[in-house]
Amino acid sequence: MLCPTGGAEHQDAGECLLTVDVDAAMGRALELAAAAREWGDTPIGAVVLGPDGGLLAEAANEREKRGDPTAHAEVLALRAAAAAHGDGWRLTGATLVVTLEPCTMCAGASVLARVARVVYGADDPKAGAAGSLWDVVRDRRLNHRPEVVAGVRAEESATLLRAFFRDRRPL
Ligand SMILES: [Zn+2]
Questions:
Q1: What is the Å distance from ligand 1's center to 103 Cα?
Q2: How wide is the angle at C-alpha 66 spanned by C-alphas 63 and 67, nearest 5°?
Q3: 53 CA distance to ligand 1 centroid (A)?
Q4: How far is the CA of 127 from the centre of ligand 1 (A)?
Q5: How far apart are CA 25 and CA 48, in angstroms?
Q6: Which neighbouring-strand residues pair with 122?
Q7: What separation in Å is there between the alpha carbon of 129 and the centre of ligand 1?
Q8: Is residue 74 among the annotated active site residues?
Q9: Which of 74, 147, 155, 156 is catalytic?
Q10: What is the pLDDT of residue 143?
Q11: pTM over cut 0.85
Q12: Which residues have C-beta within 8 Å of that of residue 82, sequence separation ≥ 6?
């Protein structure tokens, strides 16, 4: 199994916690993020991969589009993934891949969904809850703590976000 973070060949897939192609999944999440700009939402995209690394669900941020404060890309993707996965609400062994560090709601949702790992792109120093402002996903008081992989294709995500906020600034 090729480890997407280190590029090392593992004899046993169990040696590596990352047996999914997070770089490709982040590429898809970035495409979804770019699409959100078209309808005026902050460009954030998310995909959920099953335990075998296959795509379970994908979503873009639709907060403005739906007029729903909870319609973050992660929540929409986790909901769709649970419906597709067929194990009730549980996403055991799944990987949430999102272009921006999750907020408290989305970090909390990933813990509740029991995903195995959260992979994100850019840090969010203003609202991030996977290590920046809080660390909801690795709080030792919780009995389920997803693994966190930060900084995957972070610059591409940050570039999308910068362009979005630059365009919105009044002249
Ligand atoms: Zn969120």
A1: 4
A2: 70
A3: 23
A4: 9
A5: 8
A6: 100
A7: 9
A8: yes
A9: 74
A10: 87
A11: yes
A12: 88, 89, 90, 91, 113
Residue 161: partners with Cβ closer than 8 Å, 6 or more residues away:
42, 43, 44, 100, 122
In this prediction, residue 18 carries a pLDDT of: 56
Per-residue confidence in pLDDT tens, the chain, 171 aa: 344 444 444 444 455 555 678 999 999 999 999 999 999 999 999 999 999 999 999 999 999 999 999 999 999 999 999 999 989 999 999 999 999 999 999 999 999 999 999 999 999 999 999 999 999 999 999 888 999 999 999 999 999 999 999 988 766
The encoded tokens of residue 89 equal: 């609400």
45 touches 27 (CB < 8 A): no
Rounded CA-CA distance 97/81 in Å is 12
β-pairing, 95-100 with 147-149? unpaired
Residues 6+ apart with CB under 8 A from 71: 61, 62, 63, 65
